[in-house]
Amino acid sequence: MLDTKHLESRSRQLVGNILGSSFYKAINIVVGFLLVRFAIDFANEETYGIWLTLSSFFTWFSAIEVGIGNSLRNRITKLFTSKKFDEIRVLLVKGYKAMLTAYGSVILLLVLVPFFVDIEAFFVPSGSHYRNFGLIFQISFALYMLHYAFAFLNMILLSVHRTSTTFLITAIQNTILLIGILVFTHSDVSPSLGLLCIWFSAVPTAVMGLANIITFRSVLKNIRPSFQNILLTKPQRFREMNYGFLIIQVCTLVIYATDHVIISNFISGTEVTKYAITFKYFNILTVIFNLILVPYWASFAEATQMKDRKWIRKNIRFLILLIGGLLILGIVMLTVANFVYDFWIGKDLSIPLLLSALMCVSVLLTAWYNIFVYYLSSIDRIDWQMRLIIFGAVLNIPLSIFLIDQMGSSGVILATIASLLPMAIALPIQSFKLLKSDLYK
To answer: Which domain holds residue 378?
Structure first.
């Protein structure tokens, strides 16, 4: 028989996380839009596009953080539900140790690359040149990797039902970034790629580092690990690693995070900026949906542990209904897209309607299959997801290169849609089969 008291507590916790996150997420949306507008005003479309291309490359290495974090996420949720805080502390020491070891190695390796390779040729369109590009790359890369190591905190907060705190951290980070850009714009500071890159790399690192210190002295005090053990003990093999999560994240990044690099190399940095503006606009749909979806991972894991099939079915149906509302909102956003772009950026960038329409489809498709990704990941059933995302990753880059020649940057997002379509069909089928299985008996 189900523990109705626990069920009510889970639902209350879920609703509390969603409502608590709404305010911070609203701040993030407003600040995020202003940040793009004023960063372009400060640096210009081409320079901002080069930064976006660099940051897309840096994002590839988030696979390490997500792979390690997701490997521990379900275990931490189960241990937290059972109040086994000592065991959580042991896992956190291992997780942080693995993060620092992995990202320390990556930093040492990649900062040497500009000494041997013309790194500028990979990120900057032919005919353009930026002074000290290799040094800018080295500093920005090192800072960004430290940020990913510190971002292990986000996974911990999500695992223990503290979703709203992750949104608060992001809101603080983006607000500081915006204030800095406004100060630069209205002072005698000369705009440069170096300043833009280092500012956008240093602030997230500093904020996430301070967030680790503050949260483990407050909301995470009962599971605070020994940082002395993290820093001083000998590195060991991270045996808790689920390589399926790592492979999924790497392939996801191949599909999503290569777009800017491809567009920059085959067209221009300005086209990267147009593509990023379109993505940022329709990403409002993702932000709204994720506000509700993100807390569900921990809740699905807990419900599965309690064999609560009915609660999971009810909430998956609820999330599917939300997709219908998201579709209507997406159509409205597409109708007024060009007006919003001009008002937001303050100039006519001539963004094609086809690019906007395909971006809208891509965002809605991602929201749809993420319902089932969250459910399946929460119960460690990721084999089909892994196979399908590998197929999508193999398809994505050659298809993007072929279609960009035919359709411009619109072809890149069409390739993304084609790469994701198999998952959008297969994962719902797998999920509903599992919900009828003996897993919940």
So the answer is: 4-440
- How far is C-alpha 335 from the chain's CA centre? 27
Exposed, middle or buried, 124 (CB in 10 Å: 0-12/13-18/19+)? buried
pLDDT interval class at 144 (50, 70, 90): very high
H helix runs in 268-352, sequence order? 269-293, 296-305, 309-335, 337-345
Number of domains in the chain: 1
- The whole-angstrom separation of Cα 368 and Cα 370 is 6
CA dihedral sign of residues 127, 128, 131, 135: negative
The residue ranking higher by pLDDT, 364 or 97, is 364
AA letter at 42: F
For residue range 242-277, what is the model confidence (pLDDT) as tens digits? 677 778 888 888 888 788 888 887 887 778 888 888
CB 65 within 8 A of CB 151: yes
